[in-house]
Fold this protein.
Amino acid sequence: MNALVQLASEAEKENPLVPPWPELVIGLIAFVIVFGFLAKKLLPNINKVLEERREAIEGGMEKAEAAKTEANSVLEQYKAQLAEARHEAARLRQEAQEQGAVLIAEMRAEGQRQREEIIAAGHAQIEADRKAAAQTLRQDVGTLATTLAGKLVGESLEDHARQSRTIDRFLDGLDETASKAEAAR
Amino acid sequence: MSADSTQVLAFETDCHLFDGCGFPAPGLHSFLFEPLWGDTEGLYFNKPMLLALLGSFVIVGFFWAAFARPKLVPGKLQMVAEAGYDFVRRGVVHETIGKREGEKYVPLVVSLFFFVWMMNLWSIIPLAQFPVTSIIAYPMVLAAIVYVLWVSLTFKRHGLVGAFKNFTGYDKSLGPVLPLAMTIEFFSNLIVRPFTHAVRLFANMFAGHTLLLLFTIASWYMLNGIGIAYSAVSFVMVIVMTAFELFIQAVQAYVFVLLTCTFIQGALAEHH
């Protein structure tokens, strides 16, 4: 009880707005301790790290940006190459088609030519055979006819020259009639 | 809620309701301390002083642990400290003074904020339970530092005449009331401003501590007979007020540094 009364009586003398000197001094010292450590060492420390961190983050962003740009350019390049390759392929295909067409045309022409050759050869052969056959026939017919005529006339018509002429004339006459008949038809 | 000094006094009185003794109300005497060392007439060392120095070491220790070897990728402690630092730096200094001019004052303002906050926080820390800032000497020292800073800044920035115009809010368009306005401004800026700066903090902490004491002592005083019910209510109030004080302590620290920044900004600004 005594202590309380004593303090209460002291309080009447004290004005709470008038600071005692020792407390001002201690207050100042306490604050200077805090300010000194923070301002001289700790805050510069953290500022440095914050700055480094900011730079690291921005550096990372820059790196990412660079990587993105590179990726884009590579993509462009790739696309260009792809387009070029497609173009090339199309060109090759076109060329091949053209070449194929040319080849086919050539082969067709060759085939045609060969066919015609074969046909022509066949025709010539047939013609030659026909001519040979006609020749043989003519001779045989001549001989047969002569023999027959000789037998009938009784006179040898062995004289070849005359015989031949006569036969020829006869056969020509035959030919003529035949061609006439053909024309009429 | 243990050994607060005044609570100890209340315990010493061992005085309860219905015991025929009066309520030992808290008062100015609750803010006076028997020196731990020395004599009140000369040099002495008391509990608020001890708490002030201890608080300094707590702040320095905390920031030392967080910032002495800071990492690019912060740990938990560093992250918390950085958040506090960033709050004052960007939320207060850069907001009021500006990023370019304000950066110089960041260390001071950060120190002020955490110092004031810590001194306020002692109010609800068990065993300490006394806000150092409820002793006028401590806010006064801080306000004086700020006062000296912004007044000298005004002279440095604007010269003698410019500083005078800045202090008095010189404005020709006021015409005949100019002398009156200048007198009031001069008085308000140079004399009232540092006083209110210190007293705002002091009075808030003083009142907060008195309220806490009131309910704490009442809880003890009414702990007798039917008074126990009231005592319980009072004790709930102690807890509510403690939570409220926690809030007020941070707000007052914030207001103190916000005003500091406003004064600095006013000193640096061109006066029209």
Notes: The mean pLDDT of chain B is 88. Chain B touches chain A through 53 residues (CB under 8 Å).
